[in-house]
Write a structure and sequence with these properties.
This protein has 453 residues and is of the alpha/beta class. The chain has 17 helices and twelve strands.
Length: 453
């Protein structure tokens, strides 16, 4: 809904009211210094009691609606054949038009099942618009190799290009021609480059190429809700289409869809869905092995009931528009203050260009991680590093510099107020003016896989 203020201000407005609140705690800066030191300058290792605004992630920390809370009371606790699952199955079939559904405990569990099934021999390639940390890890662990072929505009941190998550179609066909591709992965709302969307037009062309070379196209729909909203606002063909109609276009052009309901659906869980019985049959035996029975997949049935309602709410434009509008508000304010951020504003969160923010640090100093630590110190706001720290070393133990050094300040859906966003902007603007105070980081304890966790 577009609301015009009488005095000409341009502010996003919440299309909901608050009915349950949780008290926040802003501890003094001296205490924050102790806490971040104890956490080894890793924001993941902070205790939440010491965090003021938790912008680490949007995963599993979104606010549930009253309808979701009410739905959880009807959960059917049966181990097998739960009515809760059949309500979820019906809702996914209604929204995506996919008759076959496999539940899983979250998105990375889906990635494991898909990679184990489709990577049938060592060295198979998975072309994708951009990797996500867990998606890449599962491809690697199952013997495959990721081929990132993001469009050139996606690497330009500051621009006006509306669909920076588009896959490079020319490079995609070149990869497919080699005949060693397990599947093509399209991530809706590319996480690591600033929550940037891809267009339906780009997806259609990618699907045509995948079909031409007989390779399945897999859609990661975890951040689909915001991508749907961006398509409606930025892609001319869809400006008068409903969110459900746009969703149908995404589904029509995908062979397998998976999602983390910790993002899409405002709850905690996930699912794989497909129109292909052959794909369903090839994957279903892995669900009892890794997740749980076929009608709960490692999820609480209460969460399943919440997901059913949450998926319905994800088709409501008033619901899915708030997060992108709040992010855009923060991006506009930070840009005006001279703080380097990813533009145009994407979904998921506000992404600060840590490389430009801290030009005196090199990639081996982990500038995004250093900025995350420093920002917590001066604000109590917990963000997440999305840069070289989020990469794993190569086979020889060498550091792999990230394409971008970003501090992600996530906007969990329906959680923060506009004044809290303004506080984040104010503290970040101060830190930018005093950025020379921030030094680099070095490792003293380093896991081999997904070390940033």
């Amino acid at each position: 809904m577009k609301i015009k203020f009488f005095k000409g201000e341009n502010l996003p407005i919440e299309m909901h009211k608050v009915r349950i609140v949780q008290k926040l705690n802003l501890i003094p800066i001296d205490e924050r210094k102790k806490r971040i030191t104890e956490a080894g300058n890793n924001t993941f290792l902070l205790k939440n009691r010491d965090v003021f605004l938790d912008m680490l992630t949007d995963s599993g920390v979104n606010a549930m609606s009253d309808r979701q809370q009410a739905a959880m009371l009807q959960a059917d606790d049966a181990y097998a054949g739960s009515e809760s699952f059949f309500r979820l199955e019906a809702k996914i079939q209604e929204i995506f038009g996919t008759p076959y559904i496999l539940p899983a405990h979250q998105g990375r569990a889906c990635e494991n099942v898909i990679s184990r099934t489709l990577i049938t021999k060592p060295g198979m390639v998975v072309p994708m618009n951009y990797h996500f940390t867990t998606a890449k890890a599962h491809v690697d662990l199952n013997g495959g190799k990721v081929d990132e072929i993001l469009c050139k505009e996606g690497f330009e941190l500051e621009s006006t290009f509306p669909f920076k998550g588009n896959i490079d179609l020319e490079k995609l066909e070149s990869a497919l021609k080699k005949g060693n591709c397990a599947f093509v992965r399209m991530e809706a709302g590319t996480n690591l480059i600033g929550g940037q969307p891809f267009s339906v037009a780009n997806l259609r062309e990618a699907k045509k190429l995948a079909e031409k070379y007989n390779v399945p196209l897999v859609l990661d729909a975890s951040l689909l809700a915001e991508n749907l909203w961006f398509v409606k606002k930025r892609e001319e063909e869809f400006k008068n289409k409903s969110i459900r109609e746009i969703t149908t276009e995404f589904s029509k052009n995908s062979d397998i869809i998976y999602f983390s309901a910790r993002k899409l659906g405002f709850a905690r869980g996930g699912a794989i869905c497909t129109k292909s019985k052959a794909f369903f049959d090839s994957m279903k035996e892995l669900i009892p092995l890794f997740e749980g029975f076929l009608t709960y997949g490692g999820m609480s049935v209460r969460e399943i009931e919440a997901i059913v309602v949450g998926l319905d709410e994800s088709m409501d434009e008033d619901v899915i528009s708030q997060s992108p509008q709040f992010i855009a508000h923060a991006v506009n304010k930070l840009t005006a203050a001279g703080v380097p951020v990813v533009t145009p504003a994407g979904g998921l969160g506000c992404h600060v260009n840590a490389g430009k923010f801290l030009p005196h640090l090199k990639s081996q100093d982990y500038p995004a991680g250093a900025l995350a630590s420093a920002f917590y110190l001066i604000s109590g706001v917990r963000g997440m590093e999305r840069g070289t720290l989020s990469m794993d070393r190569d086979e020889k133990g060498n550091e792999v510099p990230a394409d971008m050094e970003l501090l992600r300040l996530a906007q969990p859906r329906r959680v923060f107020t506009l004044s809290q966003v303004e506080y984040m902007v104010d503290r970040l603007a101060w830190l930018h003016e005093n950025s020379s105070l921030v030094g680099g980081l070095e490792f003293f304890d380093e896991p081999k896989i997904l070390r940033f966790f």
